[in-house]
Design brief:
about 525 residues, rod-shaped, 4-stranded antiparallel sheet, single chain, alpha/beta, 15 helices
């Protein structure tokens, strides 16, 4: 016999997509934070760049980088535009531009930061882009840098011409000295005179060269609009970027979050059924007892949970149920108290045992029945050291919250509660310590019919659930299922304010709860 065959369903992928969207929307605060950061970034960019203007001027660089030794060299190879671009962005040109703008030389670095020089491929045109707060200042800055570059290039060409002229004049002096010495030979004198005429012509050619080095082909004009988008565009850009950032952060947090967020995650972690999902609506100031005393969806869910446990998990055994949570913080006591009330409503005789000293005694937080309201039958059937709880319309059930010292166990302040064994015995609901914080609760797991694990949605981690499941299985117990509490988690500040003073050691002593499997005793002790 084969197992079920999974057929392809075209609705699987939309379901997975919806599940992914739900995971992201669980972190709405992170998404909102990303949107706020994006809007703040857009606003900051708008404040810093919304009122900036950029003006452009262009300079045609002539092929006069080396005008005196470039015979038979193509004009395109006479100018290195990369070198000229670096020279145009140098501090010397910036100082000239600052002087043209009427500013001190120390302002040259600030002017360099506002300048951008570009050159297109296979072009001898340099583009000067200057950014300023006002259109007029941007135009003046672009034109000043273009003129400063041409002035610097002209100065460099004039210096090269002057050096070349000095070299030729030195040669002329040498030839004139030789001409004075050589007076006998006419041919030699003619040769020296010819050489002297050539050198003088060379001086004339050098001095007649154009040393400007370039022309302004486009002057900077005051721009009509800012160089960056306005407020609406920048805010829209910030909103889009912030939304993308928020979704990314939400996805990362969802991927790294180890807390259970749904019943499917709990089933995957424990491989056991989820017997109930408690809806929101219970607060720390509310009474623990809801079944029989007030209505609501939460009370009905707890009543349905009791009916399910009564019909399946507790049938055929001694009627003992252990209610426990992986760590402190879940609604363990609320589930145990209302299970006891719901079972009493079904007609069972119920005993609620408080085996968790980490919190205040249940008898102090439950509506106990006064002694004068008890009947003779209640007094005879009530276990030693227990009290009756008035569950309203659900009836009554016994609650044991510690007990008294036992005379037959000297050396240990234990209380022994004898319960009749068999099918007609009381149904016992035991509230124990958190499994992962105190290991003494594992001793009860193998002496009860089943263990009910209470976990909180959004507060319990998957690793804690797996560890609790392993501990229950290793101790020989049976995990019946899980109850999930979907109540809203209180903030840390509220938890600190609600936290009471430290309890004395005598009140926080570790309890020892003994549930013998063969005899008919149920022992609760504090030692």
């Amino acid at each position: 016999m084969t197992g079920p065959i999974h057929l392809y369903d075209r609705y699987d992928e939309p379901d997975q997509l919806r599940d992914q969207l739900r995971r992201l929307l669980r972190h709405r605060a992170v998404i909102a934070l990303g949107i706020v950061l994006g809007l703040l970034g857009g606003a900051a960019l708008a404040l810093s760049r919304a009122h900036t203007y950029t003006s452009t001027s262009e300079v045609l660089v002539r092929s006069t980088a080396d005008p005196f030794g470039t015979v038979s060299v193509a004009a395109d190879n006479q100018v290195s535009m990369g070198t000229e671009q670096q020279i145009a962005a140098s501090t010397a040109v910036a100082v000239r531009a600052a002087r043209l703008l009427g500013q001190a030389d120390g302002k040259a670095n600030a002017l360099e930061d506002a300048l951008r020089i570009t050159n297109q491929a296979k072009s001898q045109v340099l583009r000067f882009e200057f950014t300023a707060r006002t259109p007029g200042r941007a135009a003046r800055g672009a034109n000043a840098f273009a003129e400063a570059y041409l002035a610097d290039r002209k100065a460099r060409n004039q210096a090269a011409a002057q050096r070349a002229t000095q070299g030729v004049e030195q040669q002329i002096k040498t030839v004139e000295a030789a001409q004075k010495q050589e007076t006998a030979d006419d041919d030699t004198a003619k040769a020296l005179q010819s050489q002297l005429d050539t050198l003088r012509k060379r001086v004339v050619d050098i001095n007649s060269r154009d040393t400007d080095g370039g022309d302004v082909v486009r002057r900077g004009e005051p721009p009509a609009r800012p160089s960056v988008p306005g407020w609406p565009a920048l805010l829209a850009l910030g909103l889009a970027g912030g939304a993308a950032l928020g979704i990314l952060l939400a996805w990362l947090r969802s991927a790294l979050d180890t807390r259970v967020r749904s019943a499917d995650e709990v089933r995957a972690a424990l491989r056991t059924p989820v017997l109930g999902l408690l809806p929101p609506g219970h607060g720390e100031d509310d009474d623990l007892l809801a079944v029989g005393r007030r209505g609501g969806d939460r009370a009905e869910t707890l009543r349905a949970l009791a009916y399910r446990l009564r019909g399946t998990g507790l049938r055929g055994g001694t009627g003992r149920l252990l209610v426990v949570s992986p760590r402190r913080g879940a609604a363990t006591e609320e589930v145990a108290v209302n299970l006891a009330a719901a079972l009493a409503e079904c007609g069972d005789e119920v005993l609620l045992v408080d085996a968790d000293p980490g919190t205040a005694a249940l008898t102090a937080r439950l509506p106990l029945l006064p002694d004068d309201a008890r009947t003779s039958g209640d007094a005879s059937s009530l276990p030693d050291g227990s009290s009756l709880v008035d569950a309203g319309s659900a009836g009554r059930f016994a609650c044991c919250a510690g007990g008294t010292a036992s005379p037959d166990r000297t050396g240990g302040p234990a209380a022994v509660h004898r319960l009749p064994a068999g099918s007609g015995s009381r149904t016992t609901v035991v509230v124990a310590r958190p499994l992962l914080e105190h290991a003494d609760a594992l001793a009860l797991a193998q002496r009860v019919d089943g263990v009910l694990l209470v976990a909180g949605l959004g507060t319990t981690r998957r690793d804690d659930l797996r560890r609790a499941h392993e501990l229950v299985e290793c101790s020989g117990g049976t995990l019946l299922g899980t109850v999930l509490d979907a109540a809203r988690r209180r903030g840390r500040l509220h938890a600190v304010l609600r936290r009471g003073p430290a309890r004395p050691e005598a009140e926080t002593a570790t309890p020892v709860v003994e549930l013998p499997a063969q005899d008919d005793t149920l022992s609760v002790s504090r030692g």
